[in-house]
Amino acid sequence: MYAYSIILEGLYELARKKAPEVLPKLEELVEETGAGTFDTQLLSTIRDYIIDYIPPSEHNNTYKQKIQNLEKGLEQLLKPDVQHKLFELYWGIRSREFTPPDSNFYLNWIRDFAYFTDQRLDRRTIRMHAQEEAAYNYLYSHIKCLLSNPDGYVQHMKAGDLEAFIKSCKP
Predict the structure, then answer these.
(1) Which of 25, 30, 99, 114 is most exposed, with minimal Cβ within 10 Å?
(2) C-beta atoms surrounding 68 within 10 Å
(3) Sequence-distant (≥ 6) Cβ neighbours of residue 168 within 8 angstroms
(4) CA 8 to CA 6: how far, in whole Å?
């Protein structure tokens, strides 16, 4: 609950500064979500997307288009089929039902992190942290594509070739 409230506070503050136009959709999305792990990660990825891809002011010539896409993407996140798809992807990785192609990267990354910070982690803990990191990054790649190209994301989701779209997605 603490992580949820911190992320929510940061997201609202950031949206007020960089994208106040999307606050009504963002508030609607927050009302539809809870404080669970997936919802916290969902809001965190939206926050990170705004940090990384929304320019700081209207003086940027891409600002208006990016805000429109962000707003349309938030509208799509309100739809049960889109949110369910993201939920399945996220929990599929967390529960090891689905292994992303770069899963060894995350295992090695956690092992290296533990080694260099002098932490002794057993294999189970390393795998758990690697799955968490992989799930977050996978969710982030999907959210990034959804918020930067909502129409394309939904079209490819319905066509069943979403993974190819994600690989080619450039915000």
Answers:
(1) 99
(2) 13
(3) none
(4) 5
Distance CA 138, CA 147 (A): 14
By the 8 A CB rule, do 77 and 146 touch? yes
- The domain tally of the chain equals 1
**C-alpha dist (Å) from residue 161 to 83, 103, 131, 152, 164:** 17, 21, 24, 11, 6
**With contact defined as beta carbons under 8 Å apart, do 157 and 82 qualify?**
yes
pLDDT tens column, 9-40: 999 999 999 999 999 999 999 999 888 889 99
Q: What is the rounded radius of gyration, in angstroms, for the C-alpha atoms of the chain?
A: 17
Which domain range does residue 158 map to?
2-168
Cα torsion angle, 159, 163, 169, 171, sign: positive
Report how far Cα 91 is from the mean position of its chain's Cα atoms.
13
